[in-house]
């Protein structure tokens, strides 16, 4: 089994590392964040991910996974280097290529000269990045290498599951020898595989994300419209999804999409389009629309409560969605800020994301349980799709809230179980 190195141990890198370790590879995981490496060595996952800690424990005890802050710890027999570092946006929305370029420089220093290793780009990069930035850095090393683009489509929170059982694998490469070795690496996966060139593989990831984000944005817009036009979004969709061209997934309206991928990647794609002389108006509108979608929840709250000053409002779910502790671009941040601006006393609760939320908004009071968050509240907004929230019924709200006004910002509560609650939802 080829030895592999993973550069960057966020959700993508870690899931990739553990997936390959489970398949029998010897994996070295490199991350410049020493605190993160320390946690990994103690078998603690630095991010909340379903099943990650168990798998981490297994890989460490079998000695299949070596986390290290030092890239020179990678084996001279390494055949694949996976670039899994983040690709954040610059202030103008364009992709900041510094982290990926820096990681590539580090890899270039340790490329084993006699292995012709393959550098695999898993980070989400705008089309052209591998050819224009990564390959020139590797070429400057003077050592032989192959290069591939192999984007990751995993969902945060379910990163491991999606890595172990992907719905498809996209492989971009320029040389047949690289393709052959990648095919062998992934031969145990039976899902559909698409082989293409480097730029197209980069674009497959961006276009997938852009489509899904647009789909959510479309659902939100239709839900907002249906509500004003006096029709039920659910009833409308029952008829719409009978069309076999319309897949019902990702059409759940709510307070808008967040996370490290959709908002960031859309911005990067728009900026790349602008740079190439085409400012994509639809995607620009999706971004703008999403920045205001959380206001629908505030509108519903105000319709029920009148004004908000002095009222205690609970936000259930601080992460950008359920099953994760990631608060990046979480709509809870926008909701808390706008509620505070309107004079409300905000109290938040999340099963796992409170610590990360507090770092960004230290002035929001955080509760230790749903019941504590709801105690004395006059309004509640459900912001993330946690199972614990899905199970809430009218009694949970009625027993502790001062005024039982509940706005379901993710459509996870059962309206049939809300008798006695002043229950509203988007759509
Ligand atoms: C996404 C893509 O799904 C994944 O393929 C890609 O690799 C990374 O980006 P992720 O950011 O983890 O994954 O979250 P996802 O589950 O896709 O949800 C994104 C946001 O959209 C969340 O805020 C979620 O609450 C929201 N959403 C999703 C909706 O509002 N409605 C939906 O129907 C689906």
Short description:
The protein is of the alpha/beta class. It has 17 helices and 14 strands. The protein is globular.
Describe the structure.
- The chain is built from 17 helices and 14 strands.
- The protein starts with a strand and ends with a strand.
- It is α/β, with parallel strands linked by helices.
- α4 links the parallel β4 and β5.
- It has an eight-stranded mixed beta sheet, with helices on both faces.
- The mean pLDDT is about 95.
- Helix content is about 45%, strand content about 15%.
- The site of uridine-5'-diphosphate-xylopyranose has 19 residues, from α8.
Features:
427 residues; alpha/beta; eight-stranded mixed β-sheet; six-stranded parallel β-sheet; binds uridine-5'-diphosphate-xylopyranose
Q: State the helical fraction.
A: 40-55%
Number of β-strand runs: 14
Distinct small molecules bound, one entry per kind: uridine-5'-diphosphate-xylopyranose
- What is the approximate shape? globular
Could you tell me the radius of gyration in angstroms?
23 Å
- Low-pLDDT runs: none
Mean pLDDT: 97
- How is the biggest beta sheet arranged? 8 strands, mixed
Q: How many helices in DSSP terms?
A: 17
Strand order of the largest sheet: 3-2-1-4-5-6-7-8
Strand content: 5-15%
- What is the rounded distance between the termini? 52 Å
Secondary structure class reads alpha/beta
Would you spell out the secondary-structure blueprint of this structure?
Layout: E1 3-7, H1 11-22, E2 27-30, H2 34-41, H3 52-61, E3 65-68, E4 78-83, H4 98-110, E5 118-121, H5 129-139, E6 146-149, H6 159-164, E7 169-173, H7 176-185, E8 193-196, H8 198-229, H9 233-240, H10 262-275, H11 281-293, H12 295-305, E9 312-316, H13 331-341, E10 345-349, H14 354-360, E11 365-366, H15 370-374, E12 379-382, H16 387-390, H17 394-400, E13 405-408, E14 422-425
Parallel strand pairs: 1-2, 1-4, 2-3, 4-5, 5-6, 7-8, 9-10, 9-12, 10-11, 12-13, 13-14
Antiparallel strand pairs: 6-7
Helix pairs in contact: 1-3, 4-5, 8-10, 8-11
Bound molecules: uridine-5'-diphosphate-xylopyranose.
């Amino acid at each position: 089994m080829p030895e592999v190195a993973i550069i960057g141990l966020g959700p993508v890198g870690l899931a990739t590392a553990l997936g390959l370790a489970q398949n029998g590879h010897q994996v070295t995981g490199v991350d410049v964040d020493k605190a993160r490496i320390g946690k990994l060595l103690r078998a603690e996952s630095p991010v909340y991910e379903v099943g990650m800690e168990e798998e981490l424990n297994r890989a460490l005890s079998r000695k299949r996974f070596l986390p290290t802050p030092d890239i020179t710890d990678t084996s001279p027999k390494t055949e694949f280097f996976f670039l899994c570092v983040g690709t954040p946006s610059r202030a103008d929305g364009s992709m900041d290529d510094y982290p990926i370029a820096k990681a590539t420089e580090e890899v270039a220093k340790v490329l084993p000269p006699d292995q012709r290793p393959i550098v695999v780009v898993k980070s989400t990069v705008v089309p052209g990045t591998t050819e224009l930035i990564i390959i020139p850095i590797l070429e400057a090393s003077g050592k032989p290498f192959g290069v591939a683009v192999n984007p990751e489509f995993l969902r945060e929170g379910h990163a491991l599951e999606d890595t172990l059982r992907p719905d498809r694998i996209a492989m971009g490469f320029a040389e047949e020898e690289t393709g052959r070795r990648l095919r062998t690496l992934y031969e145990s996966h039976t899902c559909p595989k698409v082989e293409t060139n480097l730029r197209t593989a980069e674009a497959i990831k961006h276009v997938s994300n852009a489509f899904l984000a647009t789909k959510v944005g479309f659902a939100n817009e239709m839900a907002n419209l249906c509500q004003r036009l006096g029709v039920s979004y659910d009833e409308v969709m029952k008829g719409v999804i009978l069309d076999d061209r319309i897949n019902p997934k990702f059409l759940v309206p709510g307070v808008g999409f967040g996370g490290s991928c959709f908002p960031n990647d859309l911005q990067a794609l728009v900026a790349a389009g602008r740079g190439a002389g085409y400012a994509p108006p639809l995607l620009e509108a999706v971004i703008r629309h999403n920045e205001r979608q959380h206001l629908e929840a505030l509108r519903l709250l105000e319709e029920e409560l009148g004004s908000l000053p002095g009222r205690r409002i609970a936000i259930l779910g601080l992460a950008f969605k359920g099953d994760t502790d990631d608060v990046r671009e979480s709509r809870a941040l926008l909701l808390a800020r706008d509620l505070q601006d309107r004079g409300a006393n905000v109290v938040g609760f999340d099963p796992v994301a409170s610590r990360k939320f507090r770092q960004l908004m230290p002035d929001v009071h955080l509760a230790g349980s749903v019941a504590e968050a709801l105690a004395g509240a006059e309004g509640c907004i459900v912001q993330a799709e946690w199972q614990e929230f899905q199970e809430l019924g009218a009694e949970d709200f009625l027993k502790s809230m001062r005024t039982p006004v509940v706005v379901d910002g993710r459509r996870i509560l059962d309206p049939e179980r809300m008798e006695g609650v002043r229950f509203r939802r988007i759509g």
